[in-house]
Amino acid sequence: MELLRSNLSRVQIPEPTHRIYKHECCLSFDTPRSEGGLFVDMNSFLAFGKDYVAWNHEKTGNPVYLHIKETPKSVPEDRPLKKPTLLAIGVDGGFDNNETEYEESYSIVILPDFVSLPFPSVELPEKVRIAVDTVLSAVGAERREQVAAWTADEKKASEHALTLQQIKSGVVIPPSGWKCAKCDKKENLWLNLTDGMILCGRKNWDGTGGNNHAVEHYKETSYPLAVKLGTITADLESADVYSYPEDDSVLDPLLAQHLAHFGIDFSSMQKTEMTTAERELDQNTNFDWNRIQESGKELVPVFGPGYTGLVNLGNSCYLAATMQILFSTHSFISRYFSHQSLKLAFEMAPADPTLDLNMQLTKLGHGLLSGKYSIPVTEKDAATAEARQEGIPPRMFKSVVAAGHGEFSSMRQQDALDFFLHLLDKVERGNNTRPDLDPSRSFKFGVEEKILCSSGKVSYNKRDDCILSLNIPLQEATNKDELEAFNNQTAGKGLEENNMSADEIVRPRVPLEACLATFASPEQIHDYYSTALKGKTTAIKTTGLTSFPDYLVLHMRKFVMDAGWVPKKLDVYIDVPDVIDISHMRSKGLQPGEELLPDGVPEEVMETAQPVANEEIVAQLVSMGFNQLHCQKAAINTSNAGVEEATNWLFSHMDDPDIDAPISHQASDVDQSSVDTLISFGFAEEVARKALKASGGDIEKATDWIFNNRNASVSDMDVSSSSSVQTPAQTGLPDGGGRYKLFGIVSHMGTSTHCGHYVAHILKEGRWVIFNDSKVGISTDPPKDMGYLYFFQRLDN
Question: Residue 18 annotated as binding?
Fold first, then answer.
């Protein structure tokens, strides 16, 4: 006890602003349930596993720790399964799944000799008792955000309820026997409270649900409120009322009056349908691993190093699928596992290692690759009766990698491609002092665009990239005859695909080679200003690669705009071989006999080249319900690349503080440091100044502006002779042969990249393995033709 009293100055009583960690080690995935329990530093309130707490004592000198240990309670085998009533984790009424209950025990431990004192004890100093009680009663930092995000928000009264105008059509709704007015659906039916139309709900990402007739009716009429039939009872607050303009479930304070308009006596109605929240809860409860992937095939679980699953934190499958593949590459394994120990990363980390990307990537790498956490748990999977693993929760990693990002820091589903690019950018920035250690460089390659003017002269533009985004040329489908026969058959019989089994539907099959050929094929550029002709003309652009990366990532552009400007996912198969050869895609640079376009673009041309939103793109986005100003900004900031790119920008920047600020094109002086930065990229000073002036001083936008206003860069950033071409070695990019082997697939199920589910398939030790969040098993039928992102490794001779 005297030892403790002598160290009281190192004990701190937590304030409300303190982040208290008590559920997971900051350096590993050890928890109070681990063999050695968890040690909470009573000064910093960081938590450490038994194997790591001594490192913290060495680094900080903090000697006093609260030891938390959880041991399983003996529970009767016939304990009934508690059905969750709230879409939440770790709170009363949330998911239970008949998991083992644990009993907590506590003690005060003083390092370095691990002297243990019992807690609770009246003999302990009052300061220690208060500090420990405060820690134990606090919500752990690891769970605070998760619990808050999963707990359903309280429904609010709709702003349209009090002013709702109901049409006197004489419609009387019977108490049962309902059917959609536009199809044969008899479930998931919604009554529009304006005109009394009964229509089916939205189609779910897995094909179930309705046919979208209710929401389509709203788009046609703007009638705002609908109530779900089958959820109306004497307790009107439990009825499921949806507001389409507010895009949320709401309360209707006048629901009784609105129902009476259609002759509905709510007091006599019985509940027969689940509410939207209950259906979402039910879908999460009955999440069927076999149903989602590989057509219900029996998958053998696999354990050991490199086979550790990741716990779904709530719509975090995009993160799990991406990280599993990245930690299957030599570059990430070397950087954050084999050549960097947890102790080294901790020693280099700041005072709070939970906020350090290098530390959390190292923690994640060791968690996935060591095999320490990839072991069968005692209880078998309740649904399959097979051995299972718990997986590791990437909470701290997600928190630090998503910091400051409005979308990735939320619990909403995200685009796996956007996350991949975001992560590589973070990793590159984190390794800027040691670029030789940067694993993101293994994905980088050079892209060269050749512009052939009608004068016969050329210009070359270069940039670095880390993905090849490929359009899918449906006209190159190899099963056109089958497609035509299928379309004729379905049209003749009046069949709809949503009423057919997956085996009956014929989908286009497009070879990957055709997608790659489309990327490299010549493209016309209209209204190109030629410095040789001193006027606008039509030029031809061809694209090639100046280097071949260690790892080649192919992004299949499956999300396009359908007729009527409606976002649509292409229902298409891509025939992807195990080995590809892209040697023919290597660009050759300035060739003998080619003459570069002369320098110098007239000032008036440069001034008129300021970024202006493409009116067609803006119109399409506005028709989808987006704000006009936001749409203009999206088009400008994506250099008018297309509706898909602008839509993705909108989703990522909705919460920007300046999203509603007016667009400004006024001239202004540019910062010299920004000019110097662009000069270091290889641009001429004159072009750099004009680009910054046109882009409001934003370096990233200025870079995009130069690449998308090719007449501005002419040969300023290019070569004047073939002998001055920089090689990949000179630019620091990896390079090698053009043959690649497929080793990873991220596949997506759902109608949008921002909903649905992501799963990874990875080639490990000569066999394909499926990583579906925490579940890891040997794949019997990897979906090579259904990928969203394909990962290839270069095969060097």
Answer: no
Q: Regarding predicted confidence, which is higher, 720 or 139?
A: 139
Distance, in Å, from the CA atom of 688 to the CA atom of 697, rounded to the nearest integer, reads 10
**Pick from 368, 308, 304: nearest CA to 338:** 368
**Position 320 in a domain:** yes
**Co-location of 403 and 506 in the same domain:** no
Task: Answer yes or no: is 649 within a domain.
Answer: yes
How many domains does one find in the chain? 6
Q: Is 453 annotated as a binding residue?
A: no
* Domain match, 691 and 649 both: no
Q: CB within 8 A of 572, min separation 6: which ones?
A: 472, 474, 477, 507, 508, 509, 510, 558
Selected catalytic residue, list 25, 317, 453, 466: 317
Q: Check pLDDT > 70 for residue 682.
A: no
Q: Does 631 qualify as catalytic in the annotation? A: no
Neighbours of 305 (CB within 10 A): 12
Is there a catalytic annotation at residue 25?
A: no
- Split at pLDDT 50, 70, 90, the class of 355 is very high
Residue 183 labelled as part of a binding site: yes
Are 633 and 645 members of one domain? yes
Same domain, 413 and 470: no
- Token pair, residue 699, equals 């370096």
Task: Give the per-residue pLDDT at 96.
Answer: 52
Q: Is 200 annotated as a binding residue?
A: yes
Q: Range of 53's domain?
A: 1-75+100-138
Active-site residue (options: 67, 258, 630, 757): 757
Shared domain for 403 and 317, answered yes or no, is: yes
Task: Tell me which amino acid residue 511 is.
Answer: P
